[in-house]
Structures are given as structure tokens and as C-alpha cells.
Amino acid sequence: MDRKQCCVKLSVQPSRGLMDEKFIVLVQNVWPGFQLTVHALHQCEDGHSWEAFGHYAADATGTVNVSEDPSLGGTYSGVEPMGLLWSLRPVPGSKPGLRMRKMNVQTPMEVTISVYQGHQTEGFVDQVPLAGVLVERWYMAPGVRRIPITEGGLTATLFLPPGPGPFPGLLDLWGGGGKLVEYRASLLASHGIASLALDYLTPKITIETRKMVGIEYFETAYRVLQQHPQVFSSRIAMLGLSFGTSITLKMAAYSEVVKLRCAVCVSGSHVQPVDGSVEQILGYFHKNGGKTRFSEENEAIWRDLLLPIPTDSSLKVDVGRLQCPLLLVVGEDDQNWPAYESAMDMKEMMERAGNSHLLTILSYPNAGHLIEPPYTPHARSSFFRTVNTREKMMALWGGETVAHSRAQEDAWRKTLVFLRENLF
Amino acid sequence: MSQAALPILSVFPSRALVDEKFKVLVENLPPGCPVTIHSLHHSEDQDYWEAYGHYISDDRGKVSVSDDLSFGGTYTGKEPMGLLWSMRPVLGSRKGLRLRKMNVCTPMLMDISVYSRHDGFRDQAPLASVLIERWYMAPGVRRIDIRERGVRGTLFIPPGPGPFPGLLDMWGGGGGLLEYRSALLASHGYVSLALEYFSPGQLQTADLEFNYFETAFNIVKDHPQVMPHRVGIFGLSLGSIVTMALAVESRIVRPRCCVCISGNHCFPPGRTLAGITGEVDMNYDKVRVDENNYHIWRDVGLAIMKEPSSKLDMGKINCPILLVNGHDDQNWPTVESAEDIAEMMRAAGKEHLLTRLEYPDTGHLIEPPFSPHFRATNFIVNLTKEKVIMLWGGQTKPHSDAQEDSWRRILTFLQQHLYCSPSPKARL
Predict the structure, then answer these.
(1) Contact between A162 and B131 using a beta-carbon 8 Å cutoff
(2) Interface pTM, i.e. ipTM
(3) SUPFAM superfamilies recorded for this chain (chain B) (predicted)?
(4) Fewest beta carbons less than 10 Å away: which of B70, B205, B273, B406?
(5) What are the structural domain ranges in chain A?
């Protein structure tokens, strides 16, 4: 009889997948009823290690299928095909306040999936697993072209799908943390949409002149997309998260230049001084900084800065002016922005204006602020450096991991359907 | 503002191993719309290979290659993987081409496109196009050059701690070092050594003793990540002959199991591998050519088989052996050989060790699934150094079915004999 269970077969299909695709993890050739732990390990670009694991018992044929069998414990439980990704968390002993974000989208996220004997909860790195495989998770499909854009003073990256085109276009805006974050745009290009990831808070021009960009910056970005020979100029959308929503709604409602085919706003609000520049809008939030609350763990809760939703029409984007379909994605446990309350107010405004047929709201109980592409690990809080104050604080984003992860999956799928219906 | 819907083409998965299936889907077409789905590959040798199928969208404007029928092109009917296995060189290409990936560290890239119309579909730009990757190596598989104890080859090691079962992997009379099958086997959990045993056209002069192969086998067996009692041998064509010889004659190596594709048992005992060419030499007059002047060698094999002294005594084999052959093999009488092997093993009471797979209208070159079918390709005859076109045989559709079916069964056979069974009676 063998000393230990040997010849365990572990497979993950596909071994190379896009970030929003599912995989099937299969363990075979173990004793029937054998207790094992399926473990995922990832070292992110910052060098931190993340792990997730589930406890399983093999069936009568000596097989564990993570897509069909329940995890009996670990970082996730129940039948969770993708639990090994969305429940990833920093390994014990890591710095607090970490958030996983891929900055280089030209290489895949590498995850080592392993099988360990028994139901284990710690010390994985000190043991030899029974088997291990490497899985690649890509933000870019083969053939997607990555093009840095600097014309017009922009700091941006354009992702073009493979093929002759023309393709619908999309302007992709992240939030108050700034930087040029490419992974959502590259993923959208992998779905056939020419997407421009735009840095509008920390672009080269702001670093050099110390001045925030004006509205023309976004109109320039729109024009760059519109005039691209492979972009369908009348089919351009805008997608904004958090502060990116503020910009998106402003452009959609007021810009003479930007004519959107549709807009997607995630975890944001329409509350802002209507005639304000980017700088002034940020200033308005900062002015209300006194309303910041703190959790028991000293995490900053900023949702109250915009509450109560003003009745003064000069302090919110007049969404009654919108002429394109709008998808709002909000988490009801968003501790950073009052996204749910804002969505309800926008609904009311649009009903009064008679354009509410354009509005779709996806509202997720127990989901937080950072509604990212599916299987992104949930960060309930993390260190955040606001662009204007340069302070580094722990921000509470909110959300309960299981519900938040489900929300990410559902929202992404529905966002893709929304974009497909309106752009293709 | 234009209202025309933009067609959406998707292939899932866009990155896959070469033996994995994909789903090709076109959406957002008008209903009942004739389209052509086309695949294009630019090979390492700079040739272009293509395949295509003619489809008609359903009432929801969809075409699903996995579910719908192709009405014409390089394949017809419901063929989920037809865009790969029916590939052939584009019009105007050089003759006798064979598609073989030499650099397995990079994927094969294919353009999959959808065009309007059936006839004359090439006259316009495609409606949409995507790029897919087909890999021989799974992520984490390690590739190691082997130049030790006089042996030349490449070792592929699966990811993970191991230990793993091992394989010695040998191709045929074309010579050289072909890594792709070993890379694929490692992607399925086997430490696999792709062995180079002579250069193309140099079989006569290759300094090949039996010992070379035994040493190669031991390199696998002795590897720290290999389970020494679970090493098998995998051969095709001439490689199969070597495989059987090792299993029957060697006093040094004991393979756990053997896979022999398009092989035969004509290895005169006591001879070297180069000595085999002597047999071919003597019977070279039996080589025929067909109406295209392609070489047919099967009669040479039939003549050799008539001599009992030129055959291995397969009754002496002591491990499970899987024989995979095609009925339309024009290069060697492999089915007849399998019959003879079965006879010998039956007589020696070893029938239970033998598994035979034989496929109708299937030729000599039984490759991993979805590889294009090569009915006749360029070959350098070792004996005469002539460049000829060798007729391998097979009809494309049945041959491709055979490749797909046999690979699945080969993997099952290897798993059964090289990976532990969980039953308490694992060790015999």
C-alpha cells in the first residue's frame, strides 16, 4: 500500500482563460470519500501573496468537481465554481488594506491551484501538495491591440478588438484614486468594443502643470475615439465607476460634443455642482469632509458626504435631460458613496421628466462600492489615497464577500448585454 | 444614424490546448443569412493553411458551429472542430506539405473569420474576425534540453511537485526532434522525453545501438520527479518498432505499458536500428507509385513480414500494449502486422495484454486530434536520399475522427496503466 495518496490528477479547464470566464477544477484518482483541500495561490504585481481554499470530500468514484460539489469550509462554502478566485484574500501576516489590481494587462494573472491532503486551513506553503497546476487568467484576448494615446494631451490607452472593424467605442473611467487603470477596457475590447481607458485625475498634463483637467479633456477623448478609422463614430458609450460616474453623467447630460449611444454608471452619484469643473466638483466633496464617519476599525466612511440628496437642482446633474439609455449599478452596502440613494433620486427625476424608459437600475443587497469585473477578490476596505488631499487612509468600501461576488458576476453579465443591445 | 446590427463572432476558449474543443458562435446576423466561417493559419514554414464551412443563420440570427450544419466548404455536416482538422494548404501552395509545430513554447495562431455569402466569400473583407491560440504546452509545463549519456532529446515535466509517471516518446522514419506530442503528454501529467535518434535522411549512418534507447528510457526513469516503476513507451511508425523491440528484447528496461501507433513488429532480433534499413533495401523493388507518382511502401512491409526471422517474438511481451492503426495505411501493412502480433500473443497466452484500435479509411499519420490530415507529404528516403512524396493514406473525415477517438483512448489507456488506481490492490 502506498505511503500516501499518490497519482492524484488535478486539471483546470481552460488552463488559459479570460478573467470573466469560468473554469472547471477537477480532482481525480483519490480514494472514495477522501478529504482534501483545493487551494489557490496568487502572487500579485506588488509581491503580496493571496490565497483561497475549499474543503471537499471525494465521491464514490474518487473525484471532486469544484463546479458541482459543495465546499464544506474554507474561504468559501457550498457549490462555488469560481470560489477559488473571488474568495482570494491576503495570506496571514500580510499588510492590512490591500487591494488586488492588475496594472500590466499584457501578461496574465497566474494562479497556482493545488490539492492538499485533509481539510487544512493554514501552513500550505510549508507542505508539499498532492498535485498542482498553473492557471493563466487574461485581461486581454488574443489579437486585442493595446495602443497608448497621448494626442491632444491625453493620458490614455486604447484597446482595439481583433478584426477589421469598425467597432463600437467606449470611454472607460475609474474613480477618485486616479492612475491609468487598463484592465476593464482591455476586457471590454476582448468582447468586441474599442475601449479607451482614460486617466483624468493624474494624467501627465496635471502632473506637469499641477492643474486638473477641464471638460475639454473628456471631449478630446471622445473625439479621439470618434475619429479613429476602426471605430463606429455613432456608437460610442461611456462607462464610469465612482467619481467616473460623476463625469459620465455630466457628459451625457450637458456636453455639446459628447453624444453617447448609452452610458453605464457604477457605484456613483449625480450629486455635484452642475456648473463645476472637475476641480470644483472634488472641492464640493472635500467641503463636506466633516461628515466623514469612522468604523470600529477606524475605516473612513464617506457615504454621508453627499447625503441627504439635495433638492437644489444646481447640485445634481439633470438626468431628465438624458437622451440615451442609462444603466446604473449600485451596491446597497456601499459605504463610500450613497449610490443607492442617488439611483433612487435619479429614477424619480427621470420619471418626472418622462425619460425613465431609458433607465435600468441594478441594485444589489450587501454589495459594496467596488463592483469590479467578475471573480475579482472583494475588498471590503483598503488603503486609499485621494488625489486632491494626498492623504492615505483606510476607506471602507462595504459589501459582504459572497453577495458582493455574486453581484460582480451578475452586473458584468448584464452590463455586457446592455452594451451589446445598444452598441451592436 | 445607421441601424445595421454589427455581427458578433466569438470563440470559446480563445486560448486552448491543441486537443481541446472550442465553440465558434456568430450572433447578431439577420435571420436566414448565408455566411462562411473561415480559419487561417500562417505556419512556421511560412505556408498558409485554411478551412471553411458554409452556414445559414437561424431565426435568431445565430450560427453555432458546434450545433449547426455546414453546407459545404472543406467540411460538411455538424463538425464542431472542422475548422481545424479540415485545414489544407491554400491554393497555390507548394506540394506535399505537412503541418508540424517545431517551437512548442509558443502557440499556433489562427484567425477565425466570418464572411458574408457562400460563393465568392473571399471577394470582400470579413464581417468580423478573432484570433485564437492553440497550445501544445499547458501553463507551468517545463521544457528541458537533454544532452546526457549520449542521448539527445527534450524532456517535458508537468507542473506540480510530482512524482509523475513517465514516457519515452519516439516518432518515425522522418527523423529529427519533434517535441509537440511530448509537450502535450506533459500537459496531461506525464514526464515525457521526446527522443531524437537520427537526423532526417540519416538513418543509414546513424550510430544507433539498442543501448541508445535503453539509456533514454533510464533517463526518464531516473529523473527525481518520475515514479521509476511507472514509465511507458510511446511510438509512431519506426518509433513503434523500437517500442516493441524494447518491450520484448530489452534486458535492461521494463516499460509499464506501450502505445504503438502505425507500427509493426519487424525488427530482426540482434540487429541495430540501421539494420532495419537493410530489410527495406532488400525489398525496395516492392515500392509502388500511384497515378500521382506518390510512393506506396506497404508491399515492402508485406514482403518483410513473410520472413519469420525478421519479426519480434511478441509472445515474450510482459506489459500491456495498445496498437493504433488505420485500414487505409499505404505506408506499411500495420493492420496485417497487428493481426500477426495478436496471433503471437494469443499463442503465448498474453492476449489479455493486447488492445487493438483499428480505424476505417484512416492512414499512417495518426496525430493528436484536430491536426489536419496528411494523405501524402514530402519525405526524404533514407536509403536513396531521394525527395519523394510519400502516400500515407486515409480520407480526411474518417482519419480525423480516428485521431480524435484514438487520442482519447490513448489517454485513458495511459491513465489506467501509469496512474495509481485507488483500489487497495494497486500493486500487482
Answers:
(1) yes
(2) 0.93
(3) alpha/beta-Hydrolases (SSF53474)
(4) B205
(5) 2-138, 145-423
